[in-house]
C-alpha cells in the first residue's frame, strides 16, 4: 500500500512538472523480475518473468513520451534490460548493455528513464546479462504516432504483439555452462509463439487471438529468439506489410514473410474468410538438416469449425531459399510520402545524396582461442570489463580497461588470428558512415545497432568491393536498426553518427554475442554540451574502479 501511494504521489508530481515545463507526457511502470516455471515447448524449466508474465508487460506509448520503468531484480544474478530499437537520443546511460551500465544487483531496483524521441514503430525489450535472453524476460514496446500526424492506413480494429523465436529445453544456466566451457549450444529444440507451442491437430482449446469477420487487425511480429530466422504466415489470409522497425513501408501484400533474429515488423490482416479457426504458422529458416515449426489458433468470433490441416507451403530452403529471401528483402521499400514521428514525409531526407566520410568493412569469424569457441569481428573477439566502458570514459579512466580502435576499419588479417579484448571503435560525431557486413561463413547472421537507425541499402551474394556501390538503393531503402547477412554474402547500411554516446553494434545471435561478436561505437561530442549528450543520471549506480572516484565536471548547455 505504501509503495502504491508513493508511486501515485510521484506520478502527480511529475505530471505537474510536465505541465509547468511543457514537457511531453510521462508513463510509469513498476516491474518485478522473478523466476517462474515456464514450458514453451512442453518441458518445464526455470524462466524469467516480469510481473509474473511471459511475454512481459507491454509498453504502449506515443512518440516523444517519457518512459519511467522501476525494475526490481528478484533473481539471484545481476540483471540489465535493453530496449531494442529505442534510440535513446543523447542517453546511452539508459541503454541497458554491459558496456554502458552497471547491472541491477539481486535484491535491488533501478529506475530507467528515457524518451521515445521522434520514433514510431514496433520494438521489444529483453535482458542482456549472461544468457538471460534464453529464459524469457521479453516484451513489447509499441510506439504510436501523435494524434496530429497522419498514419498511412486506417486504424485497425485491434492490434496484437506476436513474439516468435527458437527455444532450448536445457535452461539458460545449462546453456551458459556449455558456452563457458568453450562449446556451442547447438541447434534449438523448437519454435515458440508468445511463449507457447502447438502442432497441427493438437486439441487446442485456447486461441491466440479472437477476431471478428470483416475487420482488419494489426499484428506486430518480433523475433526474440537466440539464433534462428523464421517465416511467418497465416492460413488463408494474406498480410499487408505496413511498418518495419520504426519506418512506414510501401504496403505490399505477402503470403509469407521471413523474420530474422532481433527484427520486428507490422502487418495488417483482414478477417474476410469463412468464420472458423485458422492457423498462424511460424517455421524455421536456414537450419541445416532441421525443420522446426509451431502453430497458433486465430479464431473468428462466433465461428464454427476447426482449422484445416492443409497448411500454406513454406518458402524454399538451401540456395534457392536464400535467393527467395534476398528478393523479398529487395521488395521492402520506404514509404516516401508517409509521415513517421514528424510531420514531414519520410522521403524528405535524401540519404543517397550525402557523401560517405568513413567506411567500416566488418567480417565475422568463428574460431577457437585456447581450445575454446570464440566469435570475432575483424579478428577482435569482444570481452566486457568489471567497469562499464561508458563510465570509464566519463570518469577519464579508459586507459585502465581498453584501447580504442584495436579493430581496423577494414578487415586485413587472418580469420583464424583472434584477439580477445574490449572492442571499442572511435566514431566521429556527425560523420555519415557506411558499414559493410561480410559473412564468409555458411550460417546466416543478423546485426543490430543501438542508438541509431540506418538505411539498409543492399544485400548481395559474394564478396563486397567498392564497385558494388552502384547497386545500392539510394532512394527508398528501409530506415531500420537491424540487418541480416546471408551465408557467403554481404550487406551494406548507411547512417549518420549524430547521437553522442557509447553504442553497441552486436550480433543478435546470442551465442555469438556472448562469445565476442560485438563492438561498441564511442561517439563523443567535442563540445561536451548538454545539447549533444546528457550527464550521468543521479540514480545511475557506480561499479568497478569508478566507484568512489570524484565526479567529473558535468556537461553544460
TrEMBL record:
Highest rank taxon of the organism: Eukaryota
Keyword set, alphabetical order: Glycoprotein, Signal
Signal peptide from the UniProt entry: 1-22
Record-linked Gene3D superfamilies: Cupredoxins - blue copper proteins (2.60.40.420)
Limits of the Plastocyanin-like domain: 32-146, 159-302, 388-526
Coiled coil segments of this chain: none
InterPro entries xrefs: Cu-oxidase-like_N, Cu-oxidase_2nd, Cu-oxidase_C, Cu-oxidase_fam, Cupredoxin, CuRO_1_AAO-like, CuRO_2_AO-like
Single GO MF annotation: copper ion binding
Family, per entry: Belongs to the multicopper oxidase family.
Record protein name field: L-ascorbate oxidase homolog
Originating organism: Anisodus acutangulus
Amino acid at each position: 500500500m505504501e509503495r502504491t501511494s508513493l508511486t501515485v504521489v510521484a506520478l502527480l508530481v511529475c505530471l505537474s512538472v510536465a505541465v509547468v515545463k511543457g514537457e511531453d507526457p510521462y508513463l510509469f511502470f513498476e516491474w518485478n523480475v522473478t523466476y517462474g516455471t515456464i514450458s514453451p515447448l512442453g518441458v518445464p524449466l526455470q524462466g524469467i518473468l516480469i510481473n509474473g508474465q511471459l511475454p512481459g508487460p507491454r509498453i504502449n506509448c506515443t512518440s516523444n513520451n517519457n518512459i519511467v520503468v522501476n525494475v526490481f531484480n528478484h533473481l539471484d544474478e545481476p540483471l540489465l534490460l535493453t530496449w531494442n530499437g529505442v534510440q535513446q537520443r543523447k542517453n546511452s546511460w539508459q541503454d541497458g548493455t554491459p558496456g554502458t551500465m552497471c547491472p541491477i544487483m539481486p535484491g535491488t531496483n533501478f529506475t530507467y528513464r528515457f524518451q521515445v524521441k521522434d520514433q514510431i514503430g514496433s520494438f521489444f525489450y529483453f535482458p542482456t546479462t549472461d544468457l538471460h535472453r534464453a529464459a524469457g524476460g521479453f516484451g513489447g514496446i509499441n510506439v504510436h504516432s501523435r494524434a496530429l500526424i497522419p498514419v498511412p492506413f486506417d486504424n485497425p480494429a485491434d492490434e496484437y504483439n506476436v513474439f516468435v523465436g527458437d527455444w532450448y529445453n536445457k535452461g539458460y544456466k545449462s546453456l551458459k555452462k556449455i558456452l563457458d566451457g568453450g562449446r556451442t549450444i547447438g541447434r534449438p529444440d523448437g519454435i515458440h509463439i508468445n511463449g507457447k507451442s502447438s502442432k497441427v491437430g493438437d486439441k487446442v482449446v485456447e486461441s491466440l487471438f479472437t477476431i471478428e469477420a470483416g475487420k482488419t487487425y494489426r499484428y506486430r511480429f518480433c523475433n526474440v529468439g537466440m539464433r534462428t530466422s523464421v517465416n511467418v504466415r497465416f492460413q488463408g489470409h494474406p498480410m499487408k506489410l505496413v511498418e518495419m522497425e520504426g519506418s512506414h513501408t510501401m504496403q505490399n501484400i505477402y503470403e509469407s514473410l521471413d523474420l530474422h533474429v532481433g527484427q520486428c515488423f507490422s502487418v495488417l490482416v483482414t478477417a474476410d474468410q469463412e468464420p472458423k479457426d485458422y492457423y498462424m504458422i511460424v517455421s524455421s529458416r536456414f537450419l541445416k538438416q532441421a525443420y522446426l515449426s509451431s502453430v497458433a489458433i486465430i479464431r473468428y468470433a462466433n465461428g464454427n469449425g476447426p482449422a484445416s490441416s492443409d497448411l500454406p507451403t513454406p518458402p524454399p530452403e538451401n540456395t534457392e531459399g536464400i535467393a527467395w529471401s534476398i528478393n523479398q528483402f529487395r521488395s521492402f521499400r520506404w514509404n516516401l510520402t508517409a509521415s513517421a514521428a514528424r510531420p514531414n514525409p519520410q522521403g524528405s531526407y535524401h540519404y543517397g545524396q550525402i557523401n560517405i566520410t568513413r567506411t567500416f568493412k566488418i567480417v565475422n569469424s568463428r574460431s577457437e582461442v585456447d581450445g575454446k569457441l570464440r566469435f570475432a569481428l575483424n579478428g577482435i573477439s569482444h570481452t566486457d570489463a568489471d567497469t562499464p566502458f561508458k563510465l570509464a570514459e566519463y570518469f577519464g579512466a579508459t586507459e585502465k580497461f581498453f584501447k580504442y580502435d584495436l579493430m581496423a576499419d577494414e578487415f586485413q588479417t587472418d580469420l583464424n588470428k583472434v584477439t580477445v579484448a574490449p572492442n571499442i571503435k572511435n566514431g566521429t560525431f556527425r560523420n555519415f558512415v557506411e558499414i559493410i557486413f561480410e559473412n564468409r561463413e555458411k550460417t546466416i547472421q543478423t546485426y543490430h545497432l543501438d542508438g541509431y537507425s540506418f538505411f539498409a541499402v543492399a544485400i548481395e551474394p559474394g564478396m563486397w568491393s567498392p564497385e558494388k556501390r552502384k547497386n545500392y538503393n539510394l532512394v527508398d531503402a528501409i530506415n531500420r536498426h537491424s540487418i541480416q547477412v546471408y551465408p557467403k554474402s554481404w550487406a551494406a547500411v548507411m547512417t549518420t553518427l549524430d547521437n553522442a554516446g557509447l553504442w553497441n553494434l552486436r550480433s543478435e545471435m546470442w551465442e555469438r554475442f556472448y562469445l565476442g561478436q560485438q563492438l561498441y561505437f564511442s561517439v563523443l561530442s567535442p563540445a561536451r554540451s548538454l545539447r549533444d549528450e546528457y550527464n550521468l543520471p543521479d540514480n545511475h549506480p557506480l561499479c568497478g574502479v569508478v566507484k568512489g572516484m570524484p565526479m567529473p565536471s558535468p556537461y553544460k548547455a
